[in-house]
Amino acid sequence: MIGFGQNVNIPDPDFKQYLVGNAAINTNGDAHIQVSEASAFNGSIICMQCGWSDLTGIQAFTALTVLKCNDNDLATLDVSQNIALTILECDRNNLTTLDVSQNTALTKLSVWENNLTSLNVNSNIALMNLICKDNEITTLDLSQNTALTSLNCEYNQISSLDVSQNTALISLGCSYNLLTSMNVDNNAVLEKLTFANNQITSLNVTNNTELTQLNADNNLLTSLDVRNGNNSNMTIAGSSFRAVNNPNLTCVSVDDPAWSTIHWYNTDPWMTFSSDCSGTTSIQQLITITNKKLLKVTDLLGRETQPTNNEVLIYMYDDGTTEKKFSAN
User: Would 290 be classed as within a structural domain?
Assistant: First the structure.
């Protein structure tokens, strides 16, 4: 790391040019970066799409607080000496491993779209924001990250995810993994949950009273309970509630079936909303109307209409229940 005259060894010419050209780092204005200059710098090194392929020399910046080197060509990155780092972003590089065990001050770590097969964040107890999507990670231990408020681990190969210790979580994105179950009972302040394209069979979000977005598309759900008292605040058009392509999900338990039927339209045609789905066991039960009187039929905009084929319609009955049905020719 240290060469002749106590200059920092920086073999990558583009990286060296960036450092030498930064007056806050190269305080004496010469053609090199001295060890004293590097160790005294406590600011940020930020350069996206700079053509960097080797960050050898970064180790001398022991007081560095922010490193953003997204969209470069890095195959390795040694930040073991950068113990003051609070933010590390190295998205869209070619990293296969990353050791952040010495970076205990990190509050944000973003390693989006690399080639990581594992990521150990057990030492990063101050971490609040973790983005590790688009990698090849198979396991992710978050038991020590109790300060975590935002997690995006989408597009990996994770088969199990325990967030029971992450009680501060506000946003959780784990779509496109291999998950078969999801427990968010302890995540009372969770506002956004996306787990599309997994193999999850049941989900209960009744404890998540702050939830405003839920995406459950393309799973194997047979049970979904959204009775958390906050359904009426899930009103973001097109994204507040999604449960498309869950072939065995015929009923979703909600706060107000009539309200959900009108406002949540990203669902399968055979799915209905109810205040209690415990009595619903089959699609046929949803299609066959027994022991109740049909009051009216409306389209998804609430306009009264007549039953027709090839259109999703809302059926309202005298017992207060509603059904969303699709009848094909």
Answer: no
The structural domain count of the chain equals 1
Q: Are 138 and 158 in contact (CB under 8 A)?
A: yes
| Structural domain boundaries enclosing 75 | 1-137
Residue 280 placed within a domain: no
Chain centroid to CA 260:
24
Q: Within 13 A of 3's CA, how many CA atoms are on the CB side?
A: 10
**Range list of H helices, 47-202:** none
Contacts for 83 with CB less than 8 Å, ≥ 6 apart: 62, 102, 103, 104, 105
For 204, the token pair is: 């209960």
3-class state of residue 6 by DSSP: helix
CB 114 within 8 A of CB 137: no
β-strand pairing of 66-68 with 44-46: parallel
The CATH number of residue 35's host domain is: 3.80.10.10
Nearest to 191 by CA among 152, 230, 148: 230
pLDDT along the chain (329 residues), means of 10: 70 97 97 97 97 98 98 98 99 98 99 98 99 98 99 99 99 98 98 98 98 98 98 86 96 96 92 86 41 76 72 74 61
- Domain-embedded: residue 28: yes
Q: Is the Cβ–Cβ distance between 260 and 252 less than 8 Å? A: yes
Task: Report how far residue 82's alpha carbon sits from residue 65's, in angstroms, rounded to the nearest whole number.
Answer: 8
Please state, in angstroms and rounded to a whole number, the distance separating the CA atoms of residues 250 and 272.
Answer: 6
CB of 185 closer than 8 Å to CB of 207 = yes
User: What is the amino acid identity at position 189?
Assistant: V
**111 part of a folded domain:** yes
**Residues written for the chain:** 329
